[in-house]
Design brief:
It is a single chain. The chain has 380 residues and is α/β, with parallel strands linked by helices. The chain has two domains: 9-202 and 248-273, 3-Layer(aba) Sandwich (Rossmann fold), CATH 3.40.50.720; 205-247 and 279-328 and 348-365, UDP-galactose 4-epimerase, domain 1 (Alpha-Beta Complex), CATH 3.90.25. The chain contains eleven helices and 15 strands. A seven-stranded parallel beta sheet has the order 3-2-1-4-5-7-12, sandwiched between helices. Helix 2 links the parallel strand 2 and strand 3 (68-72). Helix 1 (18-29) packs across helix 2 and helix 6 packs across helix 11 (349-377). 40% of the residues are buried. The model is unreliable at 371-380 (pLDDT under 50).
């Protein structure tokens, strides 16, 4: 491990996404100058989207907000649609560039969008980085640990060849594998200094329980909460292997590890940012049951024709979650452990309960507020 490198300017593409916005918040707290690349929408500017994302991280703005520059960008356009003079200014001093921009869709209907965003978008970022960066600048591609696909062994911190969709659970996973190989080829052809950071399922804050994400287990919890309002105190069998597990890693752990990367000058090419110990399905399901007026029973071998209508309704809503109900993936972390200091990378039972409780309470408040609004709108 080398000496700590000088503080660089941090450029982040897709800076308003869940993990990226928490990273931006911590960077500002620690005094870094941050360039946030955010795509504006028809009803919200890039600045407003970034502001809201930052508020959501800790429910407050960071103190060093004046060290943040937000730029509206277009991922697939030449130079991101940003004037060349502005890019020259961005790269006029040492830069670490983090590419978070991604489509999180996974279905066949969105296949073209997924690959354009996740593969072509990265390739465009690499071209821009290569055009404007200096010798010691680094690019970090934020990938997923689930680029492993349907993998039977220990997923190592190395590149794997592209494969057919049958080797993956969905097109999101496949696109990330293709993107990693796009980066590999670009590095070989251009000598670009780049790294792949593979994240597992990033969840809420392990200390505060604050959870601003609705993917994975939280999407499942949201669906179950809605059913519990309509069918309270029911027992529902769900298709899930109780002993299989989910590799959950807290957002504060992830941010800690990302910050550690900035302190190390010489890094391995690929690092698996995963939990040291995954959480078993039965623990997640029992926690949701304890928090809601409903009883969930995970059963490994049950078919749709053995289910009642309510259970079939739950099954039909598990189009994404269902792909991960039987996972027990082993991840190599040799590279990560060599360069990043020790950290608690296990989501405890207490932390999981705090996260799910916070998330479901927020949903309940929104639901109750909507009910009140709907009643006020009824003419007397």
């Amino acid at each position: 491990m080398s000496n700590t490198p000088p503080m660089k300017k941090i450029v982040i593409a897709g800076a308003n996404s869940f993990v990226a916005s928490h990273f931006v918040h911590e960077l500002l707290v620690q005094g870094f100058d941050v360039i946030a690349l955010v795509r504006g929408s028809s009803d919200q500017s890039a600045q407003d989207r970034m502001n809201q994302a930052l508020i959501d991280t800790t429910l407050n703005f960071p103190s060093n907000f004046d060290q943040l520059t937000v730029l509206d960008y277009a991922l697939l356009e030449e130079d991101f649609g940003i004037p060349g003079s502005k890019l020259e200014w961005i790269f006029s001093e040492g830069v670490d560039f983090f590419h978070f921009a991604a489509s999180l869709k996974f279905d066949y209907q969105s296949k073209e969008e997924i690959f354009k965003t996740n593969v072509d978008g990265l390739h465009n970022a690499l071209k821009i980085f290569n055009r404007y960066s200096r010798n010691n600048d680094r690019l970090f591609f934020i990938s997923t640990a689930y680029s492993c696909g349907i993998f039977p062994g220990r997923f190592e911190e190395k590149f794997y060849p592209e494969d057919d969709i049958s080797s993956f659970r969905n097109y999101y996973e496949q696109s990330k594998r293709y993107a990693e190989n796009t980066l590999k080829k670009f590095m070989e052809e251009n000598g670009t200094q780049a790294h792949v950071i593979r994240l597992s399922q990033v969840v809420g804050n392990s200390e505060t329980g604050v959870t601003i994400t609705d993917y994975g287990i939280f999407d499942f919890a949201r669906r179950i909460q809605a059913l519990s309002y309509e069918f309270p105190h029911q027992t529902i069998r769900i298709l899930a292997d109780p002993q299989a597990n989910q590799n959950l890693i807290a957002i504060d752990t992830t941010v800690h590890d990302l910050m550690q990367l900035l302190k190390v000058e010489s890094l391995p090419t690929i690092l698996n940012f995963v939990a040291n110990k995954p959480v078993e399905n039965h623990q997640i399901i029992q926690t949701i049951s304890d928090l809601l007026p409903i009883n969930l029973v995970p059963i490994k071998d049950i078919t749709a024709d053995q289910m009642n209508k309510l259970e079939q309704l739950v099954l039909s809503g598990m189009s994404f979650t269902g792909n991960y109900i039987d996972t027990d993936i082993r991840f190599d972390t040799t590279n990560r452990d060599h360069v990043i200091s020790s950290n608690n990378r296990t989501v405890s039972k207490e932390s999981l309960e705090a996260m799910l409780s916070y998330y479901l309470d927020q949903l309940h408040s929104k639901y109750a507020g909507k009910e009140k609004a709907d009643k006020r709108d009824v003419p007397l």
